[in-house]
Amino acid sequence: MSFKIPKNDSKYWWTQHAIRKMVFYGLSPDRVKRTIRNPKRVEEGVAENTIAVMSAGTNPKKPSEVWVMYAAPKARAKSPKLKVEGSDSKFKIQNSQFIVISAWRYPGVSPIGKAIPIPADILEELKSEGIID
Known about the structure:
Elements: E1 12-14, H1 16-25, H2 29-37, E2 41-44, E3 51-56, E4 64-71, H3 73-78, E5 98-107, H4 120-128
Parallel strand pairs: 1-5
Antiparallel strand pairs: 2-3, 3-4, 4-5
């Protein structure tokens, strides 16, 4: 299966971190967009003013969840300090864009109502890149 690198458009802005994790976990841009549009569960993201959404896998013998953390247009308006990786003068993030920060596959079923289950390597990478504190 070849990976299709997502392009920034009028609706979605993809961080390099999110693209790397999508490749690692075998997630397509369409799967990530579908998770954002139709989540099974919505939680507060670990970064300030972010949202984490989840969609469940379809294999009952091997349950898994797909999680996506993003900054929504309305949430970004509250926080001018949200860092966007790879932004420069050539690209300008519009107020209507979703900033996809990270995406990952969680093996099993995560506990409801607790902190979102971000793998330790992803959490460390987000901290080292300055996306979260």
